[in-house]
Write a structure and sequence with these properties.
The structure holds 3 protein chains of 3 kinds.
Chain A (H helix, E strand, L loop, with lengths): L10 H14 L13 H29 L19 H8 L2 H32 L5 H13 L6 H10 L7 H4 L7 H12 L3 H9 L4 H12 L1 H17 L2 H6 L8 H11 L10 H26 L11
Helix pairs in contact in A: 2-14, 3-14, 4-8, 4-11, 5-8, 9-10, 11-14, 13-14
Chain B lengths: L8 H24 L11 E6 L6 H14 L3 E4 L7 H10 L5 E5 L3 H6 L7 H6 L9 H5 L2 E2 L2 E2 L2 E2 L5 E6 H6 L12 H11 L1 E3 L2 E7 L7 H6 L18 H15 L4 H8 L16 E7 L1 H9 L5 E4 L1 E2 L5 E4 L3 E4 L7 H11 L2 H17 L12 H11 L6 H13 L3 E2 L7 H16 L5 H19 L2
Parallel strand pairs in B: 1-2, 1-3, 9-10, 13-15
Antiparallel strand pairs in B: 3-14, 4-5, 6-14, 7-10, 7-11, 8-9, 12-13
Chain C lengths: L2 H6 L4 H31 L6 H4 L11 H8 L1 H32 L6 H9 L6 H11 L6 H8 L11 H14 L2 H12 L3 H9 L4 H12 L1 H16 L3 H8 L15 H11 L3 H26 L12
């Protein structure tokens, strides 16, 4: 894609494109109807269906494994030979409901905070030109590049100094400060918003913050929802942070809880791991994320201009 | 959208965010305290790490230990196994547990770096009888002549022979052993089956790299000196052991297909490799008989010793143990705990309870295999009930005896790196990238460098 | 920005607002991130290990010793090679597959909701399950992948046990969890003004030209973003590979050298071999490599990325 980039992408081309945009933007980018013949369309849909088998298979495998007795978990069959309701065992041996609620609360709070703070920071990098901008943005990117393994213990010591080890604060407070990945992501989306929109808003008397809130945020809504969903997932599946910071089982998140279940019946005690229970736990972990995605996925696609601007 | 926001709004947002941070942190402080308020007068607390809550055997022992240390000791036994990162974080913050349940393979590295307390005074004060423990398991946790942990399980390795496969192939399961490598290779070739370039049955699985030390021990040789300071990975015997075991795998047509086939084996299922005749014979840890007795109780198999070149039994130990980290607040209590947990009484109680439990579930109990000699004997004599199945009752008898012939790699200051060095070497040979000699020479360099770097 | 302009910039109120907006990040960076980063660099010049962590011994300065050791360590070369090969395969594959799926999804009409969720599923399958699945699905003898290949007459390789095929199977596995990248493209594609397509169609541009001249430039900020992010992620790749081949209890616990990624080797040095000082030096070497690669990417892609909002540039 890079080799044959069209020449109209150069500085001259940019000017003309932006000049035309303000007029055309308020119209919705509707779902494109592709004029395919019925036959062609049937083939196309069949191919998509076939493709989707590749993507749905692991999930079906997981559900199936969670419904098998201990002896059959890895038997590779999609339809269990014999069914076993492992979910009851899971609830019996561990406070799964508590862990689930902890995960929900940390995920939601963390994702909301990260979305807000990252958007604020990203907007600054996208809109303002200020001394130190490139250097600071470089720093933002740099924080993504150093492997976490070597900063883990110094970070732990900071939280320890604050007396917050074995609390849930280290799991979500960092989200107040934005996260490099999302700052970068949102910056890209903010930069795609025609600048004229902001200039017009300025003339209408908006200050920077109202402009951020009323122009930038609505226009970047798909990206904001992407951020929210990505972060809730990242929190939801994170094992390392809870593992380091939490000791009390009452504070555990779902992945950490499930890990301790695995430890409990692991081979260390001279037994075999109860994978059927772990599989049930994994399904319990995955399903809420599917629901969240299914719920939000339409919003990912809301046309950039559906909000219009002002009034 | 609502009306106008004042000019100073960004500053306001920032201020609000900071307030949230400060407030949440301030409000958090008290939450961390209450533990210390509870009448600290007589109550002692024992902080355990890596043990809780465990399976029935662990839980029975915990209850037993609580009775031994007394009711005024509060036992903090948080959920979850030992994790190095979490432990290092605890070390860094200075709040370490009193006692921890950790793999014996880690003891060398941790002890050499001063993270563990030697148990010398513990053993003296509590009069821990070291003679009750199996010597090999104890040596696994003895670094520079000081004991750093009390050993628990042993997981001894014996050979499981699939009677059906052996008989069909003209191999006598009751004579199966590893004494003669020439014969073993013949048996391997007789029992294995390759169809159309695919392995459909493994003859004899040498289980390398994991059991590589066992094959070197066949010569009576060691991979590392007793003091754990000199690697001996490229000895003549080690090279011969690797070449030989590699040839057993090559007989199947190569590592890639051998391993791909082995990866499909489901030892924990009802249609396990013994039932499915996917394997002739293989060394395995002790727990496998328990699994097989429950999943395929009528399948004919024979348990045999892994033997050295002179025909004597040998077996490799592995398992967890109890250790006290440097900086533990109550090492005396920790000592009482680990003594109680590895005592004959604790193991007998655990075995009795497991037997009852298994009976209620209609499952088989095939004994406990621990580093405590006396406990094993007592469990076998007083608690274990023959299953009435020849193959498993014989297996249990063999397991009890096998433990007397155990060995383990002595701890070294670079235990994990040492282990990794020979595992990588074996893999390089298996994948055809190096000859056994080249691979082990490289491993020797890597392992010795790691030991030298870490010896104190 | 020249130095005089730099200082005078602070006279503009805009600058102060900008700093106000980035304050949350700046505060977090200074309070939580900068310290540990500097600390890790300091550790890379010391013998930092368990006894220093525990405060039993003083941390002593060893100069460039750890960095010199990097040059001698054969595994470093091996791990870097593995990681580069993996990244070079994974990044373009992910971008192409994600973009293709996103384009397909725009055309499936009313069933879009369903297919979007389905294509996203692997992304929300936990790494532990992905690791196990990798070994199950790609098994050379019974895996569904090879059975599928057999149907069309191709004898499948021993993906998980032949060192030549381990990395390709890892790439396929990570391309399969392409949902995140796909979603970013979806969001970007929906932001492309319909009018541009209409204008291009009026000019008589064929579909391929419309894609090349309208779609690609208009979503280039997202392409750029994913290009950078995937590269950073690829060079830091850890979790799935670790669970499949290195974690305890994984079927592939033999830890094949063909799967030894740099971040995995780093992790082992830090938490299995306890050479924290050395691991820190490894981390900073990786940091410099990733930084260099990213800078090159930024410079090279600059002329291909088009921001509607950058008129003031």
């Amino acid at each position: 894609m890079t080799a044959g980039a069209p020449s109209n992408l150069g500085p001259t081309g940019t000017g003309t494109a932006t000049a035309r945009l303000p007029q055309i933007l308020p119209r919705t980018a509707r779902r494109r109807r592709v004029p395919l013949g019925n036959f062609k369309r049937a083939i196309f849909m069949a191919a998509v269906l076939l493709l989707s088998v590749l993507f749905i298979y692991p999930f079906l495998w997981l559900i199936s494994a969670s419904l098998k007795p201990k002896t059959d978990v890895f038997d590779n069959r999609l339809i269990p030979n014999e069914f076993a309701w492992n979910y009851d065992d899971l609830l019996d041996i561990a406070p799964v409901a508590t862990w689930f609620m902890n995960s929900v609360w940390i995920g939601v709070v963390g994702a909301l905070l990260t979305t807000l703070s990252s958007a604020l920071v990203a907007f600054a990098f996208a809109y303002f030109r200020f001394p130190g901008r490139n250097l600071l943005f470089g720093l933002v990117l740099a924080t993504m590049m150093l492997p976490g393994a070597v900063t883990m213990i110094p970070s732990y010591l900071i939280w320890n100094e604050l007396g917050l080890v074995n609390t849930q604060y280290p799991l979500w407070v960092p989200n107040l400060f934005g996260s490099a990945f999302y700052i970068f992501l949102l910056r890209q989306f903010f930069m795609a918003i025609p600048r004229d929109l902001f200039e017009a808003a300025r003339i209408d008397g908006d200050n920077y913050l109202t402009m951020f809130w009323r122009i930038a945020m609505p226009l970047a809504k798909p990206a904001l929802i992407v951020t929210f969903v990505f972060e809730i997932q990242a929190k939801w599946f994170d094992l390392m942070t809870p593992l380091i910071y939490l000791r009390d089982a009452a504070l555990f998140t779902l992945p950490l809880g499930l890990k301790t279940v695995l430890d409990q019946f692991g081979t260390g005690g001279g037994g075999q791991a109860d994978w059927q229970i772990i599989m049930a736990g994994t399904v319990v972990t995955v399903v809420p994320m599917i629901i969240i995605f299914a719920f939000f996925q339409r919003a990912f696609l809301e046309g950039i201009a559906t909000q219009g601007r002002k009034g | 959208m609502s009306g106008r926001v004042r000019k100073g709004a960004p500053a306001l947002v920032v201020a609000a965010l900071s307030v949230v941070v400060v407030a949440s942190i301030a409000s958090a402080k008290p939450a961390a305290e209450p533990a210390s308020e509870a009448g600290a007068a007589q109550q002692r607390t024992l902080n355990i790490y890596g043990y809780g809550p465990g399976d029935d055997v662990a839980q029975t022992r915990t209850a037993h230990n609580q009775r031994v240390v007394g009711p005024n000791v509060e036992i903090e036994n948080p959920r979850g196994g030992f994790n190095t990162q979490a432990f290092l974080a605890m070390l860094a913050s200075g709040s370490v547990p009193d006692v921890m349940w950790v793999s014996r393979g880690l003891i060398g590295s941790l002890a050499a770096r001063g993270a563990l307390q030697p148990l010398t005074s513990c053993i003296r004060k509590e009069r821990v009888n070291l003679k009750q423990y199996r010597g090999a398991a104890l040596r696994e946790v003895t670094y520079k002549n000081r004991v750093y942990a009390l050993p628990a399980f042993t997981n001894q390795i014996t050979i499981v022979v699939n009677d059906d496969v052996a008989r069909q192939s003209g191999v006598n399961p009751n004579r199966f052993n590893t004494t003669s490598w020439r014969k073993l290779r013949q048996w391997n070739k007789k029992m294995l089956r390759v169809e159309g370039g695919r392995v459909t049955r493994i003859g004899f699985d040498p289980k390398i790299p994991e059991f590589f030390p066992l094959w070197v021990k066949w010569f009576g040789a060691e991979l590392i000196s007793r003091d754990g300071l000199k690697a001996k990975l490229n000895s003549r015997q080690a090279i011969a052991a690797l070449s030989y075991t590699y040839s057993l795998i090559q007989d199947h047509g190569g590592w890639d297909r051998f391993k791909a086939f082995r990866d499909t084996h489901n030892w924990f299922g009802r249609n396990n490799p013994i039932v499915a005749d996917q394997i002739g014979a293989t060394p395995f840890e002790s727990f496998i008989y328990n699994v097989l007795a429950n999943n395929s109780p009528n399948e004919e198999l024979t348990a045999r010793f892994f033997t050295n070149r002179r025909g004597g039994p040998i077996t490799l130990f592995a398992g967890n143990g109890w250790a006290i980290p440097r900086g533990a607040k109550d090492p005396d209590l920790a000592c009482k705990w680990m003594k109680a947990d590895t005592s004959v009484e604790a193991w007998v109680a655990a075995a009795r309870n497991r037997l009852n439990l298994r009976r209620r579930q209609g499952e088989a109990f095939t004994g406990l295999y621990t580093a405590n000699k006396r406990a094993d004997v007592k469990v076998f004599e007083d608690i274990y009930q023959p299953l009435g199945k020849r193959q498993f009752d014989d297996a249990v008898k063999l397991l009890v005896r096998a433990a007397d012939f155990g060995f383990a790699l002595p701890p070294s200051p670079g235990s994990d790196e040492f282990r990794q060095a020979y595992i990588d070497a074996v893999n390089r040979v298996l994948t055809g990238r190096q000859s056994p000699r080249q691979a082990l020479n490289q491993a020797q360099r890597e392992a010795q460098a790691a030991i030298n770097r870490n010896r104190r | 920005m020249r130095s005089r302009g730099w200082l005078s910039g602070f006279r503009k109120p805009e600058t102060w607002f900008a700093y106000g907006f980035i304050f949350p990040w700046l505060f977090g960076f200074i309070a939580l991130t900068a310290g540990p980063m500097v600390a890790s660099f300091y550790f890379s010049l010391t013998n930092y290990s368990v006894e220093q962590i525990a405060g039993l011994e003083k941390t002593s300065y060893v100069g460039a010793k750890n960095y010199r050791q990097l040059l001698e360590d054969e595994k470093i070369t091996l791990a870097l090679e593995n990681t580069f090969i993996y990244t070079v395969m994974m990044v373009p594959a992910t971008i192409i597959v994600a973009l293709t799926l996103a384009m397909i999804l725009l055309r499936v009409g009313r069933a879009g909701d369903f297919f979007r969720t389905v294509f996203y599923l692997p992304q929300i399958t936990p790494p532990v399950a992905v690791g196990i699945l990798l070994l199950v699905l790609f098994n050379g003898q019974q895996g569904i992948v090879n059975r599928g290949l057999e149907l069309i007459g191709i004898p499948g390789p021993f993906w998980t046990t032949d060192p030549e095929w381990i990395k390709p199977s890892l790439v396929i596995m990570s391309v399969w969890a392409v949902g995140g990248t796909m979603v970013i493209y979806l969001a970007a594609l929906r932001g492309v003004p319909q009018q541009l397509y209409e204008a291009a169609a009026m000019d008589g541009a064929p579909a391929w030209r419309r894609f090349k001249d309208v779609t690609l430039p208009m979503i280039s900020p997202s392409l750029f973003f994913t290009f950078i992010i995937l590269t950073i992620a690829g060079l830091n790749t850890f979790t799935e590979v670790y669970t499949a081949y290195f974690g305890t209890g994984s079927a592939g616990a033999e830890s094949p050298e063909a799967a030894l990624m740099y971040a995995i080797y780093l992790f082992r040095q830090a938490f299995e071999f306890f050479n924290m000082g050395y691991a820190s030096a490894m981390a900073w070497l990786l940091f410099v490599i990733v930084m260099t690669v990213t800078l090159v990417q930024i410079v090279v892609s600059r002329r291909f990325v088009f921001y509607q909002g950058s008129a003031r540039e």
